[in-house]
Design brief:
about 210 residues; 8 helices
Length: about 210
């Protein structure tokens, strides 16, 4: 057994196969990460806001967890495989390769993969990080002058204010354009808090 293990370790440590095993480990890590993140989120949101039996709720949690883990793993597989193919074809890595690989993976997995609530949440999460990153990039590249080196402290207040200003305005004027889960949360916080007819419905539960 020791000889078999040593032979396998020689293979996985061989630089010639590094990219291939990097793809496999990327898929493994994405599956675990996606499962951990989605399970906790889905468990809380389902039991707080969904109706039905415990069995039905757990089935929803399982489906959401499986979809998140599968989609993230599939994206990583496409992304890293595309990088490997481009590197093999061009002889070396280029920065633009990451954009091409991300574009392909995003289109196949999250674009054509369907507009499910899980996919929407993942894409919107990424989008918010991209917008914030681009904001910081304008300061870093001196497109917008910065008075100090802390880029985040200059950009973040404006970004936070703009996000909350826009979402509250849309919630007031056109709430139907917001993501359903967000609208439900905002209805609970901002609208249902305006209605009560007794001490019980004021402090203990909604009408």
């Amino acid at each position: 057994m020791d000889s078999v293990r040593e032979s396998l370790e020689q293979v996985i440590l061989d630089p010639r196969y590094h990219d291939i095993f990097g793809i496999l480990k990327g898929v493994r890590n994405a599956s675990i990460y996606g499962g951990k993140v989605r399970f906790a989120h889905a468990l809380v949101m389902t039991f707080l806001f969904r109706n039905g039996s415990i069995k039905d709720k757990m089935l929803l949690v399982f489906k959401a967890t499986r979809e998140h883990a599968r989609n993230l793993a599939t994206f990583v597989f496409i992304y890293k495989s595309t990088l490997y193919v481009l590197k093999s074809a061009n002889g070396k890595e280029h920065d633009i390769d990451t954009f091409i690989a991300g574009l392909l993976g995003g289109y196949v997995v999250f674009g054509r993969g369907g507009k499910s609530s899980v996919n929407q949440q993942i894409v919107l999460y990424v989008f918010s990080r991209v917008v914030l990153g681009l904001s910081k990039l304008t300061v870093k590249k001196k497109v917008i002058p910065s008075l100090h080196n802390d880029v985040g402290s200059k950009v973040w207040p404006a970004f936070a204010a703009l996000c909350w200003g826009l979402v509250m305005y849309m919630f007031r004027t056109d709430p139907d354009v917001l993501q359903p889960s967000m609208k439900t949360s905002m209805d609970y916080i901002y609208l249902e808090s305006n209605r009560w007819d007794s001490l019980r419905t004021l402090f203990l539960q909604n009408e």
